[in-house]
Amino acid sequence: MLRADERNIIENSIRDIKDFPKKGIVFKDITTLLNNKEAYATLMNHLASRYKSYNLDYIAGIDARGFIFGAALAQMLGLGFVPIRKKGKLPYTTFSEKYALEYGEDEIEVHIDAFGEKKGARVLVIDDLIATGGTANAAAKLVKKTGAECVECCFIIALNFLDGVKKLQEQTEVYSVIEVN
Ligand code: AMP
Fold first, then answer.
1. Residues of the domain holding 125
2. In sequence order, what E strands does 94-135 have?
3. CA–centroid distance, residue 20 to ligand 1 (Å)
4. What pLDDT does residue 50 have?
5. Which of 15, 65, 107, 149 is the catalytic position?
């Protein structure tokens, strides 16, 4: 469990940037969390303590901010890290999954052998933020396509005024450290 003072440290380190990348969006800037050693350590220690008993095999981070938290967490837990990347970046054979954006669509990929030969590897997917849930839904589907199990999707921030979490909960467990209402 995250103590109230720990939650405050993390929450207060996240900067709101109004009208970025376009008018009407409040962008949650996590660079001010990352360069704050107390906030970054508080967050990572919390995640490590939550997930140490989950019997995980891999942490999968979503391109690109999910890599920062995912790679650090994998190292803390003694697990392997798997990048889920935007289309065209991974060099070996991939599974891919399309998802809708506000305008048009995007696509993410994972290496077909990223979670090992054995089926049913236990995987935690992590990203910095869930908004509409399109990206995370596609990521969870990708994990399943490889034959692995998506045990949970974890976010530092959930925008609860959008229904991304609700949609994602139809296919996996969801945990968010900070909820924005
Ligand atoms: P979505 O697929 O709509 O859930 O969007 C999630 C992805 O978009 C994440 O990788 C976030 O990093 C990014 N994102 C969406 N909205 C915001 C926001 N308000 N502030 C920061 N990042 C955002």
1. 54-180
2. 94-100, 105-111, 122-130
3. 11
4. 98
5. 65
pLDDT, position 117: 87
Residue 83 lies in a domain: yes
Residue 167's pLDDT is what? 97
What CATH number is attached to the domain comprising 119?
3.40.50.2020
Is residue 91 a part of any domain in this protein? yes
- Which pLDDT score, from 0 to 100, does residue 80 have? 98
Instruction: Round to whole Å and give the CA distance between 23 and 18.
Output: 8
Structural domain count of the chain: 1
> What residues line ligand 1, using a CB cutoff of 6 Å?
25-28, 62, 65, 127-136, 164
| Gyration radius (Cα) of the chain, Å | 16
For the chain, which residues score pLDDT lower than 70?
none
**65 has catalytic annotation:** yes
Active site residue 102: yes
Non-local CB neighbours of 94 within 8 Å, separated by 6+ positions: 109, 110, 111, 112
pTM here is 0.98
**Nearest CA residue ID for atom 11, ligand 1:** 129
